[in-house]
Amino acid sequence: MTRVVIMLTQDDVTIPHAAEAFRNLRDTGISDIGFKDIGLPFEGRKKLVAAIKREHMNVYFEIVRGTREDTIRSAREAVELGVDYLIGGKYLQEVASIVKANKIKYYPYVGRVFGHPCLLAGSIDEILAEAREREGRGVDGLNLLAYRYNGDSRSLIRNLKGALKVPLLVAGSVDSSEKIQFLTRLKIPAFTVGTALFEKKFLPGASLSDQVKFVLREANQ
Questions:
Q1: What own/partner pairs with CB < 8 Å and gap ≥ 24 does 182-187 have?
Q2: CA 39 to CA 102: how far, in whole Å?
Q3: How far apart are CA 147 and CA 154, in angstroms?
Q4: 3-class secondary-structure state, position 27
Q5: Is the pLDDT assigned to residue 116 strictly greater than 90?
């Protein structure tokens, strides 16, 4: 079964009304909720994590700030927040040393990630080589910006899924039934969806909760 991580984000920024959005989604059948390390003050993040934890759901915190210093700061925030998964970021050794002792699962980015919203570049062979290297260093999984890739997204996903043992989390621009069905047919362990929900890409004019219910149905057909 493919896990759907609902991101309370738009254009790689946590939405200011994330707590309200979460309250409206609690009864949709979701079990995995995420947000970014920008767009909401730290105290707001703490309250959001507490609300998610009260519902016994998994919390995902994504690093999109790109510098080494910002990445380390976000990793320390992940520990303080008490999230379940830290995803994104590129400084594997530094981040792992912070989160490992706190039982936070870490899924770093793979490939050349740049810009904001984050984009992915590099040949499939280069990305696969880096993914294998990171797998060999004991990561819990990998965060793949497959639909932000400047090449053949489907080939990239197929190649990594077929070559790796660690789970893939496909993040970014999952915005159509066709993409969801492709990921579920390949049995990709998890994908995130955020901006498309708030832009009502799946069901034009429908509520946020109906968008989420639709995505969950598509992922579990």
A1: 182/154, 182/157, 183/2, 183/157, 183/219, 184/2, 184/218, 184/219, 184/220, 184/221, 186/157, 186/158, 186/161, 187/2, 187/161
A2: 25
A3: 9
A4: coil
A5: no
**For 21-76, what is each residue's pLDDT tens digit?**
999 999 999 999 999 999 999 999 999 999 999 999 999 999 998 899 999 999 99
Please tell me the distance from the alpha carbon of residue 198 to that of residue 93, in angstroms, as a whole number: 35
Per the DSSP assignment, residues forming a β-bridge with 10 are: 13
Q: How far is CA 88 from the centre of its chain?
A: 7
Rounded CA separation 78/90 (Å): 15
* Domains (range + CATH), the chain: 3-219 (3.20.20.70)
The structure's pTM equals 0.96
pLDDT tens, position by position, 27-38: 999 999 999 999
